[in-house]
Amino acid sequence: MSHREPSELAREAGAKLREVLAAGPLNPKDRMAIPAQEMPVQDHVDRRGNMNEVALGYTPEQARLEAMRCLQCRNKPCVAGCPVAIDIPAFLKAVADGDPRAAIDIIRRNSLLPAVCGRVCPQESQCQEPCTVGKALKNVDKAVSIGRIERFAADMEAAAGTPDVPEVKPETGRRVAVIGSGPASITVAADVRREGHAVTVFEAFHKPGGVLLYGIPEFRLPKSIVEREIAALKAMGVVIRTNFVVGRTRKLSDLVSKDGFDAVFVGTGAGLPKFMGIPGENLVGVFSANEFLTRSNLMRAFDRARADTPICNCRKVAVLGGGNVAMDAARTAVRLGADEVHLVYRRTEAEMPARIEEVGHAKEEGVVFHTLVNAKRFLGDSYGCVRHMECLRYELGEPDNSGRRRPVEIPGSEFMMDLDTVIVAIGNESNPLIRQTTPGLGFNKWGNIVADDDGRTSLPNVFAGGDIVLGAATVILAMGQGRKAAQAINSMLAAAPKT
Amino acid sequence: MENSNTVLFRKELAPDVYQIRVHAPLIASERRPGQFVIVQVDSDFGERVPLTIADADPAEGSITLVVQAVGKTTHRLADIPVGEGIANLLGPLGTPTHIERFGRVVCVGGGIGVAPLHPIAKAMKEAGNHVTTIIGARNQSLLIFVEEMSRISDEVIICTDDGSAGRKALVTHPLKELCETAPKPDCVVAIGPPVMMKFCAETTRPYGVHTIVSLNTIMVDGTGMCGGCRVTVGNETKFVCVDGPEFDGHKVDFDNMMQRLGAYRKHEASAHEQCHLDMEASRLEERRRADGK
Ligand SMILES: Cc1cc2nc3c(=O)[nH]c(=O)nc-3n(C[C@H](O)[C@H](O)[C@H](O)COP(=O)(O)OP(=O)(O)OC[C@H]3O[C@@H](n4cnc5c(N)ncnc54)[C@H](O)[C@@H]3O)c2cc1C
Ligand code: FES
Q1: Do A248 and B92 touch (CB under 8 A)?
Q2: B7-53, pLDDT tens digit by residue?
Q3: B201 and B118, same domain (yes or no)
Q4: How far is A23 from chain B (nearest CA, A)?
């Protein structure tokens, strides 16, 4: 896809909007005829050298036009596709009518983090996947860009100045501990605080935000957005204690028995990087994506001149994996000045779990994709630094229980790749710290906390949600689970008034 | 209870080696021998470095750290005056030392490794062990914690490279002698530079004496989230920050560990140099201002 200047997109949209408005009320055919609005992006050559956000966001005219493409169909398949059932047609209508403020109010009824979710949700497999417009045009890429419009509404709200601090009911004297500060925890903290309960968030890192801060890079999710959400929590009176790792600094059971918390929410995420267990994996130059991204994002190693934390001088990089984490790592390596970045994935592009937009952006930025290939072992030099990767080719076999066709190795297909850096992005598991230090808390065989639909765990007064329950999943699912757990906590505290 | 991270006391123990007592009641009450903290002196651009806890006083709510000013962060940490706080302090981290009544225990400490060894030796003594301590340093001026160690050990052997104090020998010499003399040690704990730990493990291996080492690898989070601290132990990958920091010295792949420790040596050297240049520049600046008055 050739790069189109944002100014050109804006001009076209302005003209088109005038034309559409002049034509009077729209019938479904008129709506279908409105061209799908392209997201203005930073030029792909420029952006290889900076960390700034790639997608620049719709102009008001683009947002209105795109929202007008919605047919307002009766069966609302998009709402069913949204994990938190946002009333999508209603907010699209508000934007189409030129009232993004009303749109954001509609979104906030179900989602606490529209500026984040508008940017990072895999819309093409959620709300946009069943969209009637996309179906009619026989192309999911032509579905209404719900996520972009959501982002637009959230950004307009932010641009209008500090949003009102959500109302907090009178203090109840009840105290709730929230462990972790990712999207699940942010949601719980806000929803529980609103009811007037005192909330303390405990975060192991020196800054709150979870994966939104240390994992997802600036070029996809500006850190100022995360900071804004955290500031909103603080304004509501939520106390955030960083440098506090539950299980070590204090045990979960002590929070309840000694520190007097009436309820605990565990939202510790899936932070334990998986490795492949193949020879050479501990050579110098082989990193987990978590390490690579944390160095660059949280520790700001990308800013080589100012940051004390170093990051490798990668020249020829292989990233293993096909999810968002792999794309983020590959694109970060591009921005760190790597000459070549190769993405190595065991299946085909169709099976990649990454957001389709990020796959496109990675390619535009020069990341070379090698699908149906996997690493077999790493070979180093006499200094113990990685120099080569032996790979194997794969073909797709029978579908596995996830429904995806299982990759099968082709015997004798070994080949070598020369490189100096390997980033392993094949998934994350949950950190065992809380499991090891909290007797009685039930976990499944993958190390995730067992919780019911409302986040209740095997321990009374202890709730859990997000990646620690789901395994590495998504922001919206973490947020949605946080909402339900907060409701359960609030009704539990209401049912058993303070004695 | 909240950690204020305020520096309560600060003393230079040896050239570039500082003892720092910090107000951190939460850490002081939870920590066990062998655990460590992560410190960061600047929330935005500072790096996170692991430091073993040398001592803790739950009554005062303080922990003691011994820092060798070798890099930019440790220099800045050592420079924090009494009354000021450390930006970020996280802990206690890692699995505590397994303390047991083994019988005869030999504690070997090299350089500033003696500081983290001290609480372990103390706990070993309190568990009813006969404790022999071997302390090694390049020269007399770099010896630390000799008095503290003497107080809790049945026997102390001092070695310096140049013979300026105690025996002119490497710590492995007396260690070998102890292994050869009956009754031989039941357990050895060695903490110090990686090379020292490697050779202590090599020394005890032929005698089959169980040897514990405490690894101080590169770390980022210190909570098991990045894998940057991983080492090969008995052909398995272990995360030092959660599975360690102590491991069976006979199983650790020290060569791989040392190579990984060196991964950023070039960067560290230049950051350190820049830090020295900065300090030099501010010293010159101060002098110029003083002269100008
Ligand atoms: C690089 C990357 C890219 C991603 N991209 C996308 C995307 O594009 N779209 C999408 O929807 N999802 C994406 N995800 C997944 C998404 O970020 C997660 O599903 C989501 O953040 C999970 O939220 P959470 O609240 O469960 O936990 P997290 O965000 O993981 O936060 C957990 C927090 O708990 C803290 N913690 C852990 N243990 C303790 C403890 N014992 N004591 C105190 N604190 C503790 C951690 O330090 C962390 O800050 C991505 C993930 C990564 C890693
Ligand atoms: S320091 Fe990150 S996993 Fe150990």
Answers
A1: yes
A2: 999 999 988 999 999 999 999 999 999 999 999 998 899 999 999 99
A3: yes
A4: 54
